[in-house]
Automatic annotation (TrEMBL):
Pfam family, one: Helicase_C
Keyword ATP-binding: yes
Keyword Hydrolase listed: yes
Keywords of the record: ATP-binding, Helicase, Hydrolase, Nucleotide-binding
PROSITE patterns assigned: HELICASE_ATP_BIND_1, HELICASE_CTER
GO MF annotations in UniProt: ATP binding; helicase activity; hydrolase activity
InterPro entries: Helicase_ATP-bd, Helicase_C-like, P-loop_NTPase, SNF2-like_sf, SNF2/RAD54-like_C, SNF2_N
Native source organism of the sequence: Mariniphaga sediminis
Superkingdom per UniProt: Bacteria
Ranges for domain Helicase ATP-binding: 504-693
Name of the protein described by the UniProt record: DEAD/DEAH box helicase
Positions of the Helicase C-terminal domain: 818-978
């Protein structure tokens, strides 16, 4: 047997004529035996190496196999049924074009590969070398010749294969495929790239075709024009112009078919336009002037068009579905997308035109300004104010930026220019200036800002403009060299020195500030160091004054002791429970500062307070006293106004806030570990006290910061707010100064209810849940606060101990037993423990059990009178190991470093309260490890609250890095608490 060869044969299909088929043939003496037709799945088993072009040929031919045609074009069950029902007209219209496209691809591969093409008669099995059909490696080129005279137009067609002409007249020519045409002439396959065989067949039997003059206009406008467009044409008797024309690229702002804004790219050749992705490669224009015909043939310059496409890619435009746009613009709403594209043109139109790309607008509703726009900003420092001069330019029009103020504030993007064009205000201007404008006062053509906005102003100035920064660079300059005051009876740690200098710098520049260190890091000490540093040198030391009565209060005021130039006292407003603590800290650390307490029912009259303000360095008062005596206190101008635990003024609507805002002081400080507890409005109230107007009015702050941040988690607005407050808030956490603190260990103890307690709890929970949900349905969440709170409180009490509920006199508690098991270990191992509860009755129950055990203990609630003595007994008595403390009475102002265990026995949902409680033991001066245990009753409201707490305590972390209580609870969250 001879060698196997892969060939393509030209043969006849039994139904539809000429067809290419792949065969394996074997060489014998003088002929080849055709072994089989090759199918794609048989290539691997052909017994020969299969080349890529052979595989491709088989795959293309298989596309028009009988089986594949049935699947593609019919629902017939088999080939026989398919051909039995096949209509010739439908075949010619739908199937024949598909087969011809596949055969053209086969011919194209044959033109470039060594595979032989042989002619095979259906009735013969063998093949001979004489049957080979030559396949030239190029397409045939048709040339049409038109000759026009007064009577007729003649045209004939010449075919060239390379430079050789292929005769058509009276030749034995076999048409293989109609469109594009393939034919066999003299054992040579002639392939046309796009010529229809119908154009050739007339010239098989005649030399030319004649068209009478009476039909020529229609003939020229149709047949001749299309022929000129698609083929080479030689013309006599009419004009045919070919060659270069002026060309330009046009980028049009328009809408796509979905009415979405986009860019459309056209190529303009003279007065002919092509869409960038159009299939048309040539355009032919036909003109008749009198009896003269003129054709203009325009060919696209694809190389030039590619350079335009590359320019658009470089500048950031992406093509999709035939249109151009910016990446991810589909994420924008339609109006925003249109504005984005207009502003993109504002920035890039000049660059596009430099590259020869014209910019136009399509059928939009308005004529938008697409030229260059810019904003020039200059500043001037005038006393305590910054004057900002800003000029806007839209093309030929310039005007002050203040004219856009209402547009910026009301999110109006469109501004009509004098010539009727609509300018789109850049989104960047809104981002940079919208939150700034509410803080400004309009003064003619300028905007005027208070100096405490310098940090925000610095961000909007042009690069290189450091005028504002230089004006206030002393904030981080000279204060670094400030020394601690003489007479300070304490060794400040590094972070405390930093806080002292920070407050000194704020005072030097006339700013108020919030020292927001964690509990236990020494905010009181840092503040006293500042007040001692700022003590007027003429004031006598406290030791030189002997005209004081009991409790260090002034009895006889003598203004002469001030030595002439007076400095009024500093007023420190604080919770009642901290008065004693502050007084002791002043005596301990800064004994030279004279302190006066304006508290209690026996506080002095206005006249005495006036003399005290001149004589004493510090006046201590409480928030309640300020509310009651606000009219009297507002008549003084104090040196410093200091709010300790400043979260007491977090509610801008409260009497306390309104009262402290009436007080006068040259300088202001706020001290707190939790400047944000529930909402950013807490921060606004305290910052407005410190630097009035720094965050604008409450309504604008709600609009521009609270809503975007709390409801929409706006990163941009969060960063802007941080810029505004950063210079005026100093926050250090325990973790940041860990090297100065002992380790802290925390653990959650899960307690199980006993059987009766669980049954009682579930019964009550069901009743409470139904009652609350009915209330919410009728009144809504907002108006159901009291019933929700009562229900939550009752379940909390039941989770701790059933006897906390008034109508339950008997019962035991699983948590109670676990508490005493652990207390027994603490006492036996000679440790001290602080036990915190928000329910005094819970502490009373514990006291009864502790007394039965004969353990020594102390107890502190809101009713305790002798707080100082109670604290001393616990700290100094080594046998007193248990301190029962209510959260309300002991959350702040206590230094209990004698304890190294802390029990939080009924956690609530304000983490700040728990953190304050822990800080009673875990603070400066503690030299032992501190262990914190939080007792949680399993399957109770406490677990649900803790889960909710963990999800909603991140707000303050964002701005002050503080762990704070919950924000408002939604209905869904309320329902989840009772499931």
């Amino acid at each position: 047997m001879g060698e196997t060869e892969f060939v393509i044969v030209l043969t006849e299909h039994r139904f539809w004529g000429n067809v290419f088929q792949p065969y394996l043939i074997h060489k014998k003496d003088k002929f080849y035996s055709a072994e089989k037709v090759v199918k794609p799945f048989e290539l691997k088993n052909a017994g020969m190496e299969v080349r890529p072009y052979e595989k491709e040929l088989v795959e293309w031919i298989d596309k028009y196999s009988d089986e594949r045609l049935v699947k593609r074009f019919s629902r017939a069950k088999n080939v026989a049924e398919f051909y039995a029902n096949l209509e010739p007209v439908w075949f010619q219209k739908n199937i024949s074009p598909f087969i011809e496209r596949c055969m053209f691809e086969v011919a194209r591969i044959l033109m470039l590969s060594p595979v032989r093409l042989l002619n095979k008669e259906v009735k013969y099995a063998n093949l001979y070398d004489e049957d080979e059909i030559e396949v030239p490696p190029w397409f045939a080129r048709p040339v049409f010749y038109f000759e026009r005279d007064s009577s007729e137009t003649r045209y004939h067609l010449d075919i060239f294969l390379g430079e050789k002409e292929i005769p058509l007249l009276n030749r034995n020519i076999r048409i293989i495929s109609g469109n594009p045409c393939m034919l066999v002439s003299r054992n040579q396959l002639i392939v046309f790239e796009k010529l229809d065989a119908k154009r050739l067949t007339p010239f098989f039997s005649k030399e030319f075709v004649s068209v009478p003059a009476s039909m020529e206009e229609k003939y020229y406008a149709g047949f001749v024009r299309k022929t000129i467009r698609d083929f080479d044409v030689k013309a006599e008797g009419f004009q045919l112009l070919e060659g270069n024309v002026e060309k330009s690229a046009v980028l049009t702002l328009d809408n796509n078919l979905k009415l979405e804004p986009c860019f459309v790219l056209h190529f303009r050749y003279g007065d002919e336009e092509f869409l960038f992705n159009a299939d048309r490669e040539v355009a032919v224009q036909f003109q008749k002037t009198g009896n003269t015909f003129l054709f203009k043939k325009i060919k696209r310059d694809f190389e030039w068009e590619k350079t335009v496409f590359d320019h658009l890619s470089v500048i950031g435009l992406k093509e999709k579905d035939g249109y151009f746009s910016i990446k991810n613009i589909d994420l924008c709403e339609r109006a925003s997308a249109l504005y984005f594209l207009v502003n993109w043109l504002n920035e890039n139109k000049s660059w596009l035109e430099e590259k020869g790309i014209l910019v136009e607008q399509g059928k939009l509703e308005k004529n938008y300004f697409t030229g260059e726009q810019r904003l020039e900003v200059k500043t001037n420092v005038s006393g305590d104010w910054f004057d900002v001069y800003a000029m806007v330019t839209f093309g030929e029009f310039s005007f002050p930026f203040v004219r856009l103020k209402s547009y910026i504030l009301n999110d109006i993007r469109e501004f009509e220019l004098p010539n009727g064009e609509v300018a789109v205000i850049p989104e960047e201007w809104f981002a940079r200036y919208k939150n700034l404008i509410p803080f400004a006062k309009s003064r003619g053509d300028k905007l005027q800002f208070d100096r405490h906005h310098y940090a925000l102003l610095q961000q909007i100035l042009p690069p290189g403009d450091d005028s504002i920064l230089k004006r206030f660079q002393q904030l981080s300059g000279d204060v670094q060299n400030v020394t601690l005051p003489d007479g300070l009876n304490a060794q400040l740690r590094n972070y405390q020195k930093e806080g002292f200098r920070w407050m000194f710098g704020l005072q030097k520049n006339g700013f108020g500030g919030c020292l927001a260190d964690d509990m236990g890091l020494g905010k009181t000490l840092q503040t006293l160091a500042l007040l001692l540093k700022k003590k007027h040198p003429e004031r006598p030391a406290f030791s030189s004054v002997n005209n004081t009565g009991k409790d260090g209060q002034l009895e006889l005021f003598d203004r002469s002791v001030s030595g002439g130039k007076e400095q009024l006292a500093s007023l420190i407003v604080l919770p009642t429970s901290l008065v004693h603590n502050w007084e002791n800290e002043i005596k301990k650390f800064t004994p030279s500062l004279k302190v006066y307490k304006h508290v209690g029912q026996l506080r002095k009259t206005k006249g005495d307070l006036n003399r005290a303000a001149s004589f004493f360095d510090i006046i201590l008062t409480t928030y309640g006293t300020v509310r009651n005596d606000v009219e009297t206190l507002a008549g003084f101008k104090f040196f410093y106004l200091i709010l300790d635990e400043s979260q007491y003024v977090k509610n801008p609507m409260s009497k306390t806030y309104k009262a402290v805002m009436k007080l006068q002081g040259e300088h202001r400080l706020a001290l707190t570990g939790t400047p944000i507890e529930n909402s950013l409005s807490d921060l606004w109230a305290q910052m407005n006290f410190l630097n009035k107007g720094i965050l604008g009015n409450l309504a604008s702050f709600q609009r521009y910061f609270i809503t975007p941040i709390e409801k929409h988690n706006s990163k941009e607005q969060r960063e802007k707010l941080q810029v505004l407050i950063r210079p005026f808030v100093l926050r250090r956490t325990k973790e940041e100064v860990a090297k100065d603190l002992p380790p802290l260990m925390e653990q959650v103890v899960i307690c199980e209810m006993n059987e009766n307690q669980q049954q009682t709890y579930e019964t009550e929970k069901s009743i409470i849940r139904n009652s609350i949900l009915e209330g919410i349905e009728e009144e809504g969440v907002k108006n159901s606060g009291m019933i929700i709170l009562r229900g939550l409180t009752r379940l909390r009490q039941l989770a701790n101990h059933p006897r906390l509920v008034e109508d339950i006199e008997e019962g035991e508690s699983g948590k109670f037993e676990e508490l005493f098991r652990m207390l027994e270990n603490v006492v036996a191992e000679k440790h001290k423990v602080l036990v915190f509860s928000s329910f005094v009755k819970h502490l009373e129950l514990m006291r009864g059990r502790i007394e039965k055990e004969n353990w020594k203990y102390s107890m502190l609630t809101g009713q305790t009178k002798n707080r100082g003595e109670i604290i001393r007994q616990f700290q100094d008595d080594p046998e007193n190991r248990i301190f029962l403390i209510s959260l309300k009475a002991g959350g702040v102002g206590l230094n209990l470093t004698g304890a190294d265990y802390v029990f939080i026995i009924d956690p609530w949902w304000n983490p700040a309260s728990e953190n304050q409680a822990v800080s009673r033991a875990h603070r400066i001066g503690q030299n032992k490890h501190v262990f914190v245990y939080r007792f949680i009753t399993q399957n109770s409201i406490e677990e649900k609250i803790r889960q909710l707490q963990e999800r909603k305590s991140s707000l303050a972390d964002t701005f002050i890095n503080s762990n704070n209580p919950l924000q408002k609870i939604t209905r869904e969250e309320i329902e989840s608490l009772f499931t």
